[in-house]
Amino acid sequence: MTSRVKVGQDRELVHSYPYRSACPSTTWADLVARTTTDMLLSGYTNYFFWTTIPDFAGIIRKKISSGCRVRFLLGDPDGQVTRQREAVEGAALTVSTRIRMTLEQLDRLGPSEGLDVRFSAPEDAPNHVGLSVFRFDSDALVTPHLARVIGHDSPMFHLRRHGEEGMFDRFAAHAEELWSRGRDIREGGDGGQA
């Protein structure tokens, strides 16, 4: 078996998975546990964190109390893009239900300094629903969503930052851009406009 030495930007690719669900839950748990500064979970629904990582709410509380910034960027459960994605997926556990499950779990955490939750802006929703970026300090798990496939069946890449302008920075910048235009969930929905 031959292996090649990773050089340049290629070094940032830690692992690739043909399905997000093929990534071991221990990888998710380890990345969450190791994050000390900034966690940005910008999946459209993010609901699977509570079913994948034991005591995820407790871990988030500890992260926040230790000074880690924790951010959730969600799709608007009442938005036009959410309704369109539900029609495309045709899944019993709808996109809006998955978002509401996350909102319910976040509500149970209560208001907390260091925890921010936003809906992506209506004009950004098509870009958000098509690409999930989960950032844990200098690691990121990135899922480009395939046409009619639910997130767990889409491919995923584990990236680790090794320098400026690499793949990690490009995907992190995408998530930050969506975050910057997002709106606090207390401001309400987009009224079905997209």
Structure, described:
It is a single chain. The chain has 194 residues and is an alpha+beta fold. The chain has helices spanning 25-34, 49-52, 56-65, 80-89, 95-109, 125-130, 167-181; strands at 13-17, 38-42, 69-74, 115-119, 131-136, 139-144, 156-160, 183-184. A hairpin with a 2-residue loop joins β5 (131-136) and β6 (139-144). It has an 8-stranded mixed β-sheet, sandwiched between helices. It is built from 7 helices and 8 strands, in the order βαβααβααβαβββαβ.
Summarize the structure.
By secondary structure, the protein is α+β, with helices and mostly antiparallel strands. It contains seven helices and eight strands, in the order βαβααβααβαβββαβ.
Give the biggest sheet: 8 strands, mixed
Task: Give the proportion of residues in helices.
Answer: 25-40%
Q: Compute the separation of the termini in Å.
A: 50 Å
Q: Over the alpha carbons, how many angstroms does the gyration radius reach?
A: 16 Å
Mean pLDDT: 90
Note the overall shape.
globular
Low-confidence stretches: none
| Main β-sheet, spatial strand arrangement | 1-7-6-5-2-3-4-8
Counting helices, strands and paired strands, the structural category is alpha+beta
Quickly count the helices.
Answer: 7
Detail the topology: elements first, then pairings:
Layout: E1 13-17, H1 25-34, E2 38-42, H2 49-52, H3 56-65, E3 69-74, H4 80-89, H5 95-109, E4 115-119, H6 125-130, E5 131-136, E6 139-144, E7 156-160, H7 167-181, E8 183-184
Parallel strand pairs: 2-3, 3-4
Antiparallel strand pairs: 1-7, 2-5, 4-8, 5-6, 6-7
Summarize this structure as a short list of keywords or feature phrases.
194 residues, alpha+beta, 21% strand, 7 helices, eight-stranded mixed beta sheet
